[in-house]
C-alpha cells in the first residue's frame, strides 16, 4: 500500500512524466494489474501497467474498464505526454493519473518500481528489506563460472559471491577494504573501463595486470534507463564466451531491479519514519506510541536541526543531507529524522553531554560533498514528551550557528545566553529601533564626533561597573573609562543608579550595537 502521489514522485525520478494534474495527496493504492490482450476484460486494480499498448488514449480507456486510479504506459510517441492531448483530457475527466514512461526505461524496471512500492510498502514499514543481494551474486557466479562482486558507481563493494578462494590479490584487497584499491581504480580509468561502464551496457573484459595483483575479469554495467547504478565483476582468465557473457548481462539487469527495489524500500522506510517524527515533534502523537513505532528508548533525547546548501542551490543539499541521516535499514541508525522545508530534524538519544550529538553532526557532514555548507543546532536534552521544546531550541541554536560559521554546532543548553542575545538582535533588526533614548543619543554622538561612548558603556555594563575590568576589555587606562563615563553623562541622562535602566541599556546595546570597533 502506498499513496498515489508517492508513486508519481518516485517514478518521476526515473524519467516518467505525469500527464495532467497531480493527484490528491491522500489517494491510496493497494493493487497492480498488467494488461493482458488475451483476456476478455482487464483485471481490476488501482494501477494498470499498459504493457504493449502504444496508444495512450487506448491505455486510458483500458484503465477506465479496469477501474484504475493510475495507468502506466511506455511509448515513443511524441504526443504521448501532451497535457492538452485527447488522452490527457480523457484521463483528467475520468480522474485517472496518466504516467508516461521514458522509452530508455524498460518495462521490467518500471514494473519493478511499481510492484515494489504498491505491494511491498507494508513489509518495508515493518522493517523488512528486499531480497538478498549476496545470494544474487552467488547465482551470477554460478552461471558465469567465476567469483563475482557487485559494486556501486564509486567502486565500493555492495555484495560478493562465495568461491572467492579462487580470487586474485586485488579481489581480496577489494573485499577486505570494501572498495577497489586506489591503484586498481587508476588502472581502470587509464584503460577506459570506467568510461565504458558509464556509457555502455555491453560487458567489457579487463586483461590481467600482474604488477597490481590483478587477474582477468569481465564487468557489466548495472543501469536503469540512463542512470548508472554500479557494475558486476566476474573473475575470468580470458573473455567470456557468448553464453556466459549473456548470463553476466542478464545478471546485471537483475541487479538493477534489485537496487531499484532496495531504493524504493529505503524511500518508503524514510517516508514512514519522517511522518512519525514530524508528528512527534509537533506534539500531535502520543510519545509512547511514537517510541514504540520508531524504536526509541525511554531515555533523554536531543533534537538536532541541520540546514545544508551549496553556493548555487539549497534544496538538493537538504535532500542529500536527509538521505545521509536516514541511510540504513531497520534500527541500525542512532537517530530518527524528518524534513520540514529546508531543515532536517533528527531525534538522537543524548543526555546531558552534547558531545555525541556533535559527533553525529560531524559524521553526517563528512559524508557530504566538500562544497556543501552545513549549519547545525542542538536542542537541550528532553524526554519524549518534551521534544517539541527541544526542536524550538534546536531551531534557535541553528540560527545562531548560521550567523557564526566556522564554529562547532551550537548546543542550546551550553549557549542559551548567546541564543537569547541573538534573538534580541534578530527582533531588533526586524522591528523599529527607538529613535530616542540614551543609546540612540550616544550612537549619534559617536557618529558625529568620533567618540567611543557606546562601546565604553557596553564594556562598563558587562564589567558590572568595574572600570578596571572595562578598561582591560577596551585596552585603555581605567581613568580613560572614568573620563568617558563622565562625558557621556553630559550628552544624555543615563540613570545608571537604577537597576531597570542598567538592564534596558544592556539589552539595547546588545541588540542594536554589537560590533563597534576601536578603543
UniProtKB/TrEMBL annotation:
It comes from the Bacteria. Gene3D superfamilies: PucR C-terminal helix-turn-helix domain (1.10.10.2840). InterPro entries: CdaR-like_regulators, PucR_C-HTH_dom, PucR_C-HTH_sf. Residues 455-511 form the PucR C-terminal helix-turn-helix domain. Coiled coil: none annotated. This is PucR C-terminal helix-turn-helix domain-containing protein.
Amino acid at each position: 500500500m502506498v499513496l498515489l502521489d508517492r508513486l508519481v514522485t518516485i517514478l518521476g525520478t526515473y524519467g516518467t512524466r505525469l500527464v495532467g494534474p497531480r493527484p490528491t495527496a491522500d489517494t491510496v493504492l493497494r493493487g497492480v494489474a498488467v494488461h493482458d490482450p488475451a483476456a476478455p476484460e482487464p483485471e481490476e486494480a488501482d494501477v494498470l501497467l499498459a504493457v504493449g499498448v502504444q496508444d495512450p488514449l487506448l491505455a486510458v480507456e483500458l484503465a477506465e474498464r479496469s477501474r484504475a486510479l493510475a495507468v502506466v504506459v511506455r511509448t515513443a510517441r511524441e504526443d504521448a505526454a501532451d497535457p492538452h492531448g485527447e488522452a490527457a483530457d480523457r484521463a483528467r475527466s475520468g480522474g485517472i493519473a496518466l504516467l508516461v514512461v521514458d522509452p530508455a526505461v524498460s518495462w521490467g524496471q518500471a514494473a519493478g518500481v511499481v510492484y515494489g512500492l504498491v505491494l511491498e510498502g507494508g513489509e518495508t514499514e515493518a522493517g523488512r528489506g528486499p531480497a538478498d543481494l549476496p545470494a544474487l551474486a552467488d547465482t551470477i557466479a554460478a552461471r558465469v563460472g567465476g567469483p563475482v562482486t557487485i559494486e556501486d558507481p564509486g567502486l565500493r563493494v555492495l555484495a560478493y559471491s562465495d568461491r572467492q578462494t579462487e580470487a586474485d590479490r586485488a579481489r581480496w584487497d577489494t573485499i577486505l577494504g570494501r572498495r577497489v584499491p586506489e591503484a586498481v581504480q587508476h588502472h581502470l580509468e587509464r584503460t577506459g573501463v570506467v568510461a565504458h561502464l558509464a556509457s555502455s551496457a555491453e560487458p567489457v573484459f579487463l586483461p590481467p595486470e600482474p604488477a597490481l595483483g590483478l587477474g582477468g575479469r569481465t564487468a557489466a554495467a548495472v543501469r536503469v534507463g540512463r542512470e548508472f547504478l554500479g557494475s558486476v565483476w566476474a573473475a575470468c582468465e580470458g573473455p567470456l564466451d557468448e553464453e556466459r557473457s549473456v548470463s553476466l548481462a542478464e545478471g546485471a539487469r537483475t541487479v538493477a531491479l534489485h537496487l531499484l527495489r532496495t531504493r524504493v524500500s529505503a524511500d518508503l522506510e524514510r517516508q514512514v519514519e519522517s511522518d512519525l517524527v514530524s508528528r512527534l515533534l509537533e506534539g500531535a502523537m502520543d510519545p509512547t506510541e511514537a517510541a514504540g513505532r520508531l524504536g526509541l528508548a525511554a531515555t533523554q533525547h536531543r533534537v538536532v536541526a541541520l540546514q545544508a546548501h551549496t553556493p548555487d542551490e539549497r534544496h538538493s543539499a537538504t535532500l542529500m543531507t536527509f538521505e545521509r541521516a536516514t541511510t540504513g535499514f531497520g534500527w541500525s541508525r542512532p537517530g530518527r529524522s524528518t524534513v520540514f522545508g529546508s531543515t532536517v530534524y533528527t531525534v538522537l538519544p543524548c543526555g546531558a553531554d552534547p558531545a555525541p550529538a556533535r559527533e553525529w553532526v560531524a559524521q553526517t557532514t563528512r559524508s557530504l560533498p566538500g562544497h556543501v555548507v552545513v549549519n547545525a543546532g542542538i536542542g537541550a536534552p528532553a524526554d519524549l514528551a518534551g521534544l517539541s521544546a527541544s526542536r524550538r531550541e534546536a531551531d534557535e541554536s541553528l540560527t545562531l550557528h548560521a550567523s557564526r560559521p566556522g564554529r562547532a554546532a551550537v548546543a542550546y543548553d551550553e549557549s542559551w545566553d548567546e541564543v537569547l542575545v541573538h534573538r534580541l538582535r534578530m527582533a531588533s533588526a526586524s522591528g523599529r529601533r527607538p529613535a530616542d533614548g540614551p543609546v540612540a543619543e550616544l550612537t549619534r554622538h559617536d557618529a558625529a564626533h568620533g567618540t567611543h561612548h557606546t562601546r565604553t558603556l557596553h564594556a562598563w555594563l558587562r564589567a558590572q561597573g568595574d572600570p578596571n575590568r572595562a578598561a582591560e576589555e577596551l585596552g585603555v587606562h581605567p581613568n580613560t573609562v572614568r573620563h568617558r563615563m563622565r562625558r557621556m553623562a553630559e550628552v544624555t541622562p543615563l540613570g545608571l543608579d537604577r537597576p531597570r535602566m542598567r538592564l534596558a541599556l544592556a539589552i539595547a546595546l546588545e541588540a542594536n550595537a554589537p560590533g563597534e570597533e576601536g578603543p
